[in-house]
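Appendix B. Raw example, untouched.
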Amino acid sequence: MKVETLDRLEAVGAAAWRDLHAASHLRSPFLSFTWQREWARAFASTRRVEVRTVKDDTGHLIAVLPLYEAEPGLLRLVGGTDVSDYLDLVVAAGREEDAWGALLQALAGGTGVWDLHVVPAASATATTVPALARALGLTATVTPEERCPVLALPRSWEHYLERLPSKHRHEMQRKIRRFQRELPEARVACADRPAEVETRFGDFLDLHRRSHVGKARFMDARMEGFFRRVIAALATDGMARLWFLDTPSGPIASFICVEWDGTVGLYNSGFHPASAALSPGLVLLAHLIEDAILRGKRTFDFLRGEERYKYEFGPVVAEELVTVRIESPSGVTTA
């Protein structure tokens, strides 16, 4: 195994990254070259980027560990925890232990700390790295971080409704009927092409900022630029959709969804506070789940956060996320 250190993501190459991402177990958009490149462009342009690549004896790329220096000596995964829900080593399925063995051997020969956040608990990064690290004289700890409620989708909308607890099913149907009675002209719209996403992204931003003061602070100019670029780019690859609940007076609810491997992920939202009494977010979310079922999707992932409303839509399991912290004996880098 050969480990190389590069100073930018582009040095790996978009095509090579995409091939590796497609061959990995975790093919979420957050690990795609598009997402990683746009995040680094927006949030790490003034930071040191350290991309570790692993190639086998034939020179074939089997893993990429994209890191940036968050603090002197402390490296974290490119993608950041503020906007990315699943991060990890990008590695060909079945080569996880080989890749981590080579990467940890390289770290053992130097100094530093790798602080890896929002890693799926089932990943080899969480399950095999601690033992591999200890054998090399490194310290590795795994700490619970967050959870993502995940809904397994049935074969039909009717079957989905039957599976819901009766209280939640009746409440959902009551609110949908009330909405349809009060706003019969309302229509669901989906932007899934880059040009459509670009055209309607201003509507999403307006609803997002209106819905909560915290969201308005979060969506500053730099964050807006990142999302405008990355969601349109992901739409090109069929990995993002922008949804709206439109009325004659304008949109009143919106969601960004990301998609991968038969999964629809509920990523971000916005709604008009003046319409809150009609529960437009609930109405639109119910449509998203129905649409995912109709398109044959297997999973609806509510992504990070265990807000009560998510569980009212029926998920019974949650994807555990952890922080994996790996330290060389000194714990401080001189690079």
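End of appendix B.
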